[in-house]
Amino acid sequence: MPKAADVQNMFNRISRRYDLMNRVMTLGIDKRWRRAAIRAAKVDPSTRALDVCCGTGDITFLLAEAGAEQVIGLDFSEGMLEQAGRRQAGYRDQAAADRIQFLQGDALALPFDDDSFDVITVSFGVRNVEDLALAFREFARVGRPGARIVCLEITRPKSRIANFFYDIWFDRIVPLMGAIISRDRAAYTYLPESTKAFPRPPQLAEVIRAAGIREVSWKRYGAGIVALHRGELPIEPVQETTTAASTGTERAAGAADTVEA
Questions:
Q1: pLDDT averaged over the chain?
Q2: Contact present, 59 and 252 (Cβ < 8 Å)
Q3: What is the number of other CB atoms lying within 10 angstroms of the CB of residue 196?
Q4: How far is residue 259's CA from residue 33's CA, in Å, rounded to a whole number?
């Protein structure tokens, strides 16, 4: 995996065409996946939400539109945050946009106190962090008791046929699109490489649980190429005597590896 500074520079380079590339690359279906993430977050008017690796703010704005009282979008790319700020200035729902604050920061060292947020989201971002386990420990640290943790990420599909078309799309077509639309083939060659190295949904669920997050489950979307993980922080400290039973229940919940469009 490239060093953090290299990944940061890459996202700075592609930030201006990032949204357009996402729409073209996913044929616009990514909007449906993001709405599913918002439903999983269960936002209400008292929610204080953090969107980590927010990019240009797709999930950030949706959290605010869903009614969250305050939303913070955090990213380490200045270029992405610059685009997010431009969107915020002319956003269609200005009341929602006014409840958003964008900050530059590191997912591995979140600049917030413990127990600060009711919802923590990350979409298409944890694949790029150097220490996945540390990232989820940080999410758990800043979450309040009962906080919802929602992760949306690209993954390899389960079936051989889907994998065949997945490889053609991401290994050949997406880099070509990146060269034409973003004028950066290298950035969109990194995408399939990072996806191949990323844990599959069951393994990612174990990483999330190891961070102290409970009730972990996941669901696949888009013919299995995207996984939506959801978990909650315990309201009360987890007792050692109940850990084994709790883990067994959570594995059963996560085992329903279903697929939606």
A1: 91
A2: no
A3: 11
A4: 12
